[in-house]
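Dear colleague,

As promised, here are the two records you asked about, laid out in our usual form so they can be pasted straight into your sheet.

NAME FIELD: protein one
SEQUENCE, THEN STRUCTURE:
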Amino acid sequence: MNIQHTIVLAALVGMVPGGCKAPEVPAVEQTETVEALTPLPALSGTEHFTILTSGTEIGALSVDHSSGTTVIDYEYRNNGRGPTLAETIRLDAFGFPIAWDIEGATTFGNKVDETFVLEGSSASWTDSTGSDVTDLTSPAIYVAQNASPYSLWLYARILLADADRSAAVLPGGTLQIGEMEDIDVTGPAGPETVTAYALSGISQNPSYIILDADKAFVGFVTPRFSALRKGYESEDEALRARAVEYSAERFESIQAEVARNYEGPVRIANVRVFDPESEALTEPVSVVFEGNTISAIEASDTRADGETLIDGAGGTLVAGMYEMHGHLGQNSALLNIAAGVTSVRDMGNSNDVLAELIEKIESGRIAGPRIIRSGFIEGKSPFSSNNGELVSTQEEAIEAVRRYGNGDFHQIKIYNSMKGEWVPAMIEEARRLGLRVTGHVPAFSNADQMIAAGYDEMTHINQVMLGWVLEQGEDTRTLLRLTALKRLPKLDIQDPRVQATINAMATRGIAIDPTLAIHEALLRSRNGEVRAGVVDYIDHMPVAEQRGAKTAWSDVSAPGDDEAYYQAFDKILETVTAMREAGILLVPGTDMGGSFVYHRELELYQQVGMTAPEILAWATQGMADYVEQGDQLGSIEPGKFADFFLIPGDPTEDLKAIKTISMVVKDGTVYFPSEIYPSFGIKPFTEAPDVAMP
């Protein structure tokens, strides 16, 4: 599914700061009056932008101001999916939206019918979360939930005309803009200097936009995605590299503030340690580490001279967990650490971007988990995921496998547009190089064929189950691989075809990475309802994330679809339960960035028959053993790396206890999540433990 690689999070949610349509929306605090605002020039003419991912053109954005209103068409397709949006916007003399209509569909098909109207001081709006109205006492910018990248410039021009470059927004929050740097580029008229700005304040991370000397919109950039004005496409790679650096500088600054590397031994006193072997907690002890290595586990009341003492206050110490389906970037790296996820198996990425991220983490420049790399290989087609290695022939596919055999990669991952008939030769080469093989089921193939070809692991439960419900010739390079899941409720798990697949996996020792949390979000999220997977933490999130938590992913408007999608998740749970009972190894991963979602991923396995202690042992020592790191990681023992986290509660009694983390140690560096979360606009969940210096 590769949610992070479809750009849906980067280009639709994280990119566009949003508010939260909720009764507790804060009152507008902006103090300036309309008379104090600066009138802005009326917009005119047309503008055209190219949408790119990792340098590949995937769509377009066109803007027409000629009618006196701003009309926008925005569409892209990456990995066989993407948004289609049509916007009509009316602005007042100061650039504030007074009417905004957005129609179309989001990346996964949820219909968009968003409206905003300002009449006098009365502002009313309807988005995917519902409707609301408020009476403004001072100006505020409406921030659309499903806007195109062009909206960022509309917000920016208002902020740049404001004395303090900030403004209250609707439905809630405050938006700020800050100048990053001037950049020399070559545009359609030749060399020129543009300026990069950061928009921030109501989402977890800033959005970076580029303006020309006249403050006109040149584009929006992330490390992988860009929307650039026609004529600037040649600057895509350089501008995305600047976005990487801006993000790195931000996280480097956070790292300098929150990372603690104590001199000498560090003792965590009065804690009970979770033991994966016994799946139980020890009696109260002290855990001592020095540098990046655990040196001792001793009586709780012991203390030696020269030690830093951290009071565990009777809490539980758990080894760092493994997120086994990540697509890691700088934004998610630190949040995974704060969530106790100290190791991530990256399942496909821009190879250069990931290599740079690993270097930054290993050098200590930014915080992040240990990364296990998968070599992504995709076939070239109109539906390709523009990532990793793209190949056009079997020979090119085999060569791609060889390039991943340099010792930096744990396995290869095969993707949707690959031709199934090429897979056996790819697997043969991978075996020769000592690489494992996992992946999606290539289009027009089925799981049984990939099992027979020699996959070591199947990626996503839907990739297996589609083989039981698709008709011959149906194309899973499109959204069909998701929408066809509404056929699952009619599936009989005792069907001989189903049992044959499960038995083949069990007999051959093939694991599965089901990614339950993403399927829950896809199948059970509904507009206006906070989905089950986020209820425990969403009130702590910035308003943009709160808004997104009340938005459906799929279009369930057709008769019967609502119930079919909802029941499909029950069938997924039934299937994963049957796989577990057959002895198939399950692998916990999210494909949603890990962090808070990873906690939900683990929680869901209780619904397939696993106990809380069993899940903890599986997510720590079990996965460390699976990726051949069990001698160094996975449990809290002398001689192993100091990767673990502290929680006040007992996760063997209630797995939800892992959602309240007071301290994380990764490779001997100590982090307190209560100090990390405010940088993301997140309200901390618990206080840091007391620390006594020697």
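NAME FIELD: protein two
SEQUENCE, THEN STRUCTURE:
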Amino acid sequence: MNVAELFVKCLEAENVTHIFGVPGEENEAFLFALEDSSIEFVPCRHEQGAAFIANVWGRLTGKAGVCLATLGPGATNLITGVADANLDKAPLVAITAQGGLDRIHHESHQFIDVVNMFRPITKWNGNIPSPRVVTEVVRKAFKLAEMEKPGATHIEISEDVASLDVPGKPVPMKPGRVRRPASDYKALAKTVDLLRSAKKPLVLAGNGAIRKLASKHLTEFVTRHNIPVAATFMGKGAVSDRLGQSLFNIGLGFKDYVLEAVEESDLILAVGYDIAEYPPQRWNPGSDKNIVHIDFDPAEVYSHYDPEVEIAGDISAAIWELNKQLNDSNLEFTDWYKPVRKRIKDDINSYRLKDGDPFTVPGSLLEMRDILEDDSILISDVGTHKMWIARNYPTYCPNGCIISNGLASMGIALPGGIAASLLNEGRQIVSVMGDGGFMMNSQELETAKRLGVGYINIVFNDNDYGLISWKQYQHRKRSVSTRIQNPDFKKYAESFGIAGYRPESLDDLRSTLKKTIENKELCLIEIPISTHVNNELIDKLKNWWS
């Protein structure tokens, strides 16, 4: 057995079923070792697309998605997807090849120091210097990638090391379950005291609250005691937006209606809140909020986020323990937040399209939401549409809406839909993107077609880098350097052998969405949009807050 073959056996022991990547000369031994394994290697059309598929795979499963590239440009092309996974707390293991050890001590073809390059964007990374350490390196990469808080790790393997014989009969290390520490009883007791003295507590649910048990216990907690929940972009679905306690989402760069409840609250329970996603000065500008921090790790040192209590440990266990300690309590808060929830719901519904109206992002989202089932998955790219999805797309289950909001990378939605489709064959899946984000990884339509997956790709087309235009307009009342031109998206889709649609009326939009979503048809739907609602929203909110 050589090193590559042992490496693959270790991946099988980690229950890896798919690896996404681009083949290269220097990972030849590894690819041939995969051929005889239970793992399917999926050739992608760009390493970034492969990394994004692995990224969303990790987000949806909690188990590391795996991506592969060769040395040099292959490795550099992985960087954005790997960095995105690390900042979005998605478990991912990246594997890259390297030139032979006999040439990397001096300048040589395609050689760069990949390990040092990946160090700032991973939880841990390293290479395999010897056949004797393969089992430990692989186990460490997966353990650290999946351990809370999850993130990206990286393994480099040189082409000559990959072909070396392994002495003896090594056995892959078996994955073991790591039990996270229980919450400190004093911190829990103080939290209970703070809740009993509070009048208007509010939960700020972040990325960490998406975990299934955390979501279950959090839902029980807020419904039993009537505590409102505002979720960050990546916390969408931690508590169903159907619940009366949901205040939908927080996270826009300007003051939205939900901030009224935050300002009025006298106790913020930050559950799985991730500062990388939404800085606390946006919701705690006076640094005066009474905060309880409930997360896997202690709180970051931040002047606008200085918790009264820190409960560091397993989030679901902490919420479960709070439920237990308050079980016999008659603690139930008033409906103080209900006017805010009604205002948010009414505003979302105000964007309903009428016959003859130009298509808009929020109007189109309402049409999608009418058709999509409660357990469907929407994957959002990055752009203006992301803001509207976060704000106006109700989500009813954990991971029902996947948004990259740590690194916030354009180009994630189309490849992300491949991961979602492979993992959830029976569910309705929609990837939503702007024309800019679509063109960054549109080549992965071929990968999706080859794999035979079925999901809907929605492209909102304004021939612009719309989010930048929107922000420039807010600052300067005009935009520059953002306009772009696009191909005929319908014909572009058809060139890949999939259906392309361009609805021209509201009835056409509704029938196209209904047919493609219900049939789980791999297709592309271009929706030409008017962006007038963007600045109208800003003006409306400014007037409301003034």
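A couple of things worth noting about protein two: The two ends are 72 Å apart (CA to CA). Residues 350-545 form a domain with the Rossmann fold fold (CATH 3.40.50.970).

Best,
R.
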